[in-house]
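User: Predict the structure for this protein chain, please.
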Amino acid sequence: MNCKISVIIPCYNAESTLKRCIDSVVNQTFGFENIELILYDDASTDTTKEIIEDYAKQYENVVPIYSKENSGFPVRGRNKGIETATSDYIMFMDNDDEYDLNVCEFFYSELEKTDADLISCGKFNLDTITTEYTPTSPNGKERINIAKDDIIYFEDRFIWNKIYKRSILIENGILFPEGKYAEDLYFTILYLQHCDSLIDVPDYNGYIRHVQEDSISRSWDLNDLTGIIDVDRMIYSKIADNPNIDFSRLYKKEIGILLYKLYSLHLLKEKKEAYAYLKYLYDFEKEISFKGSLDGKIQDIANKLLLKKRFNLCYNYLKLVEKVYDSNILRKLYRGL
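Assistant: Here is the predicted structure, written as C-alpha cells:
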C-alpha cells in the first residue's frame, strides 16, 4: 500500500457504533484508497472483532490488530497504531464518533499547500442538548496561522480533530502514556514542542463527537482527576527546564477544566475528599508558580478562591454552580443557545 493518511481507531465493545464510525472514513471524498485504516480491537466481548474482520476482508487498506487482553484504555491501540502506520500523516478517531466526509481531503490539501507540522479544525458535539449535526464546509473558512512562539500554548489539545506528521512522532519518540486519563493532553503538548508551524481552522467542524452520558467520561472519580494532575506533573518534568515557556499561560485552561469537571461530573459529593483534591491542585499550582490572569469566568472565580487557600468557600461556590449546571442552563449559555 502507498496510502497518504493513516487513521487509527482503538475499538472496544463498539458493535452499536463502529460501522457508522468506519463508514465515515470509507466514504471520505479524499478517496478511501488513499487512507490506511488501522483498527485495534482491545479484546472486545461483543461482535466488534467480527465487524473489523468484515471490513478487512473487503478492503486491503484496512489493517486489523487484535489484542488478547483488554488494556482498559484506548492508549495502547493508539500507540500500536503509530508503530504500525506507514503513511506520512496520522489521524485519530474514537470508535463511537465520526468524521465529516470532507475532513481528510481538507487536511491533505492544506498540507500540500503549507507543509504545516500540525493542522487542527473544529469539532461538533452531539448530546442530549444538541441532537443533530449541521455540516460545515472548509471552503471560505479562516485559516489561522499560529505564531511559532505561541504554538506550545495552543489551547485545543484534543487529538481527534487534527492531523499529525508521523516523522515528528517517530523521531521524538512521542507516544501516549498508558494507564492515564488526559493522555491526549500529554501527547499534544509534547508534540507541540516540536512544531514550527500550526494552522487552525476552528469554524470547520471536521470531527463529530457523540457524547454518551454513560461513556467512560461519566464514570470518573476524584482519583481520576488527581491522576490528571499527575499527568500535568509528568509534562512539567519534561519541559520545566525550558526558559521560554510561560507555565501559567500553558496550564491556565487545563486548571480551569479540572475545576469544571468537579461540578460537571458531580464529584463534589464527599466534602472531605473534595477538599483533599482542591489542596492537591493548589499544591501543583504552587509548584509551577501559577500567576495567570484570572477574570470573571466560573472556573477563574473558583481558582481565585483556591489560590487564596479558601478551600471551604471554593467548595461551596462549586456546589452552587453544580446545581445551576444540572438545569442545563450553563451548558446552553456556553453554546450560545
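The chain has two domains: 5-210, 236-334.
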